[in-house]
């Protein structure tokens, strides 16, 4: 390839390995080749060994590969949160913001409030800030959600990593150093490293292995259009309003808001994968197709039929209530399963399982809800399906079903 370009442009061309990643595309292929199923956890352990990250000899540092069971805490009321470090726009950033406002003024978001790090030195400051003010609590509250607090203890480093302002290697090394110096606990540091050395590398591998066909995946045959409230935030479902409002304001919402609020709703509602996928690509500061697409199609809406995730991340209102303070002030009641005041996530969840029973019931990780469903009468199933259909028809009329 380098030779072709060299000839074409009459210039010497040298192709270098992309320093924004630990592994090459060829390395992922070597791992994936011949495996019947791909699972992030297996790939991640190999990467830990290969790059000697969080290892003590040939054993995982801290005595385990994964500390996830310690990482699913709800945020206690009144917990102090770090304030987000902001970076005042310089002349170049202001010029770009003006251009964006001028050409794309009617699009979602607001360029005037842009304050992400855009230089190497700002990105390094953002990393230092995270190591002190975020990392020690990152693990505990990684999955937590709180009204008016979209950032919590997350790093906000994805744009800098994706742009190459920070290398994943230096970020993981800095996190490991913080643990070895006793400045952050192992559950936080391992959880953080897994996102970068595990998930980020893994989804990139999936993207390049599966494209271009991957973009058209629709294993669950979902065809509804995206509701308008994804663009405006105007919905009386408070969790969605929160996630979309922070998206509009900051071009950010954290992983669990993306996966378990906006993604989960799209999954349960049967939104066409391509519609929700284009939305994620349009709205986030860190959005790049190689990472966004597998996260959306593979993780959020199970459009790839399980190539990437071992089960759909489908959840009812109970999960959202457990992990957030959104439900308390919502116009719907999370305690009600059906009826006009019931949380729509509740009946949508069961209707999703009923609709997809033939596709999902053999999945061992879905055994529990399908055991519950097996005790339901046909009339009860019909009632849930009816409520879900009526709600969805109200907010998003179906178009081109089966197209
Ligand atoms: C539907 C959906 C769409 C997404 N689209 C993008 C996208 O376009 N660009 C993007 O960078 N991330 C995307 N993610 C992954 C993840 O949500 C973001 O990387 C993360 O929220 C960015 O915020 P942060 O920097 O504060 O991350 P933190 O929570 O602090 O995590 C640390 C770093 O780990 C990496 N990371 C964490 N989770 C993932 C993941 N699932 N896949 C890949 N890398 C991960 C990121 O580089 C992130 O900066 C998406 C997730 C979902 C569910």
Verbal overview:
This protein is an all-alpha fold. The protein has two domains: 39-210, Serine Threonine Protein Phosphatase 5, Tetratricopeptide repeat, CATH 1.25.40.80; 229-395, Orthogonal Bundle (DNA Cyclobutane Dipyrimidine Photolyase, subunit A, domain 3), CATH 1.10.579.10. It has 19 helices and two strands. The protein has a two-stranded antiparallel sheet. Helix 3 packs across helix 9 (186-210). The chain binds flavin-adenine dinucleotide.
Short description:
This protein has helices at residues 2-9, 25-32, 40-51, 91-104, 120-133, 135-138, 158-163, 168-180, 186-210, 229-232, 238-250, 255-269, 273-283, 289-300, 317-323, 344-355, 357-360, 367-373, 378-395; strands spanning 55-56, 59-60.
- Name of the CATH architecture of the largest domain: Alpha Horseshoe
Strands of the widest sheet, in order across it, are: 1-2
Number of DSSP helical runs: 19
- Global morphology: globular
Q: Approximately how much helix is present in the residues?
A: 40-55%
The first-level CATH class of the largest domain is given as Mainly Alpha
Keywords:
single chain; 403 residues; mainly alpha; Serine Threonine Protein Phosphatase 5, Tetratricopeptide repeat; DNA Cyclobutane Dipyrimidine Photolyase, subunit A, domain 3; two-stranded antiparallel sheet; 19 helices; 2 strands; 51% helix; binds flavin-adenine dinucleotide
How is the secondary structure organized here?
Blueprint (H helix, E strand, L loop, with lengths): L1 H8 L15 H8 L7 H12 L3 E2 L2 E2 L30 H14 L15 H14 L1 H4 L19 H6 L4 H13 L5 H25 L18 H4 L5 H13 L4 H15 L3 H11 L5 H12 L16 H7 L20 H12 L1 H4 L6 H7 L4 H18 L8
Antiparallel strand pairs: 1-2
The structure holds flavin-adenine dinucleotide.
Flavin-adenine dinucleotide binds next to helix 7, helix 9, helix 12 and helix 14.
């Amino acid at each position: 390839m380098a030779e072709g370009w060299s000839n074409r442009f009459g210039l010497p061309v040298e192709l270098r390995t992309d320093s924004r990643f630990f592994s090459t595309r060829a390395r992922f292929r070597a791992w994936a080749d011949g495996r019947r199923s791909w699972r992030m956890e297996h790939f991640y352990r190999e990467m830990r060994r290969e790059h000697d990250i969080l290892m003590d000899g040939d054993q995982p540092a801290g005595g385990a590969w994964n500390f996830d069971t310690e990482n699913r805490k709800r945020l206690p009321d009144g917990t102090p949160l770090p304030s987000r470090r902001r970076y005042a726009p310089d002349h170049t950033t202001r010029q770009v913001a003006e251009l964006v406002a001028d050409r794309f003024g009617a699009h979602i978001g607001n360029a005037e409030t842009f304050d992400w790090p855009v230089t190497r030195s700002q990105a390094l400051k953002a990393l230092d800030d995270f190591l002190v003010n975020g990392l020690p609590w990152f693990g505990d509250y990684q999955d937590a959600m709180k009204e008016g607090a979209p950032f919590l203890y997350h790093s906000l480093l994805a744009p800098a990593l994706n742009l190459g302002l920070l290398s994943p290697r230096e970020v993981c090394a800095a996190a490991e150093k913080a643990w070895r110096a006793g400045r952050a606990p192992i559950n936080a540091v391992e959880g953080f490293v897994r996102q970068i050395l595990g998930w980020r590398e893994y989804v990139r591998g999936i993207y390049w292995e599966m494209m271009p066909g991957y973009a058209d995946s629709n294993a669950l045959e979902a065809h509804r259009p995206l509701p308008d409230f994804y663009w405006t935030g105007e919905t009386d479902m408070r969790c969605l309003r929160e996630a979309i409002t922070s998206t509009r304001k900051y071009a950010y919402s954290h992983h669990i808001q993306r996966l378990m609020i906006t993604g989960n709703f799209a999954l349960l509602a049967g939104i066409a994968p391509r519609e929700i996928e284009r939305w994620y690509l349009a709205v986030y500061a860190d959005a790049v197709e190689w990472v966004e697409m597998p996260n959306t199609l593979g993780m959020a809406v199970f459009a790839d039929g399980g190539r990437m995730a071992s089960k759909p991340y489908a959840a009812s209102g109970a999960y959202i209530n457990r992990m957030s303070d959104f439900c308390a002030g919502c116009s719907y009641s999370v305690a009600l399963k059906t009826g006009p005041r019931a949380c729509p996530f509740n009946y949508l969840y069961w209707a999703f399982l009923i609709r997809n029973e033939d596709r999902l019931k053999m999945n061992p990780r879905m055994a529990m809800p399908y055991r519950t469903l097996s005790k339901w009468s046909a009339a009860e199933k019909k009632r849930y399906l009816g409520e879900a259909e009526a709600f969805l028809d109200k907010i998003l009329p179906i178009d081109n079903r089966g197209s």
